[in-house]
Amino acid sequence: MEFFAQTRKPATLAEIADHFGWPRSSTFNLLATLSEKGYLYEPRPRAGFYPTPRWLAMARMISEVEPLPPWTHTLVADLSAETGETASIVAPAGVMAVFIDVVESKAAIRYFATIGHRVPIHATASGRALLLQYSQEERDSVYRKIEFKQYGPSTPISIEAVEAELRNSIERGYCQSFGDYSRDLAGAAIPLPIGDRRLSVVVAGPEFRIGPKVAEVAALIARTVDRLRPKTTAA
Questions:
Q1: What pTM does this model have?
Q2: Which domains does the chain have, with CATH numbers?
Q3: What is the pLDDT of residues 14-25, one digit of tens each?
Q4: Of residues 60, 81, 40, 87, the one with CA closest to residue 201
Q5: Buried b / exposed e along 175-203 (16+ C-beta atoms within 10 A)
Q6: Which GO terms describe its biological process (predicted)?
């Protein structure tokens, strides 16, 4: 689907096979199966394959099961507009954190993130804001699955280092990152529990721009959440 989202036009068997480096026979079998199931069609004879609206229908059915409350999109939209940076809602996915709603900065130099973007849960502000919502036993279970890598000079590369950063985050009232995972990128995040869902909200951008005001950005995030979160529901 990402391939078609990027190209925005039908693609032939050869084009798809060449793009992914797949054998022509395997590509043919895959396209034939998807076509038989109603997921692909040929808009014009021999002009290539394109997704049918069935993908959209399935996506809507999936999203309706665990929808985000409408106020959460307003949250990231307002944060991005006020800070000029990229704002996102993030959820846990094993040892990773996945972006489930994003409003990108309009600046030329910005944090490029899209829905579905994944980052290490322990090496990012957004991920650590998720870990703060875990019990110690749950965190220990996650730590056993992490392959600790030195992504940058400030990456926490041990369980002790991650736990120390979590304690620091509790003391300061927010999670922060200064090139911990992505070079020259800084961000501030806070936990965003909604019902029984563990989420976080993060604002991130170039370190030269957001770094000096991370504390201010974190305070803005907290104020905006408090302003928008419904007071009488679990949402």
A1: 0.77
A2: 2-63 (1.10.10.10), 67-228 (3.30.450.40)
A3: 999 999 999 999
A4: 87
A5: bbbbbbbbeebbbbbbbbebeeebbbbbb
A6: negative regulation of DNA-templated transcription
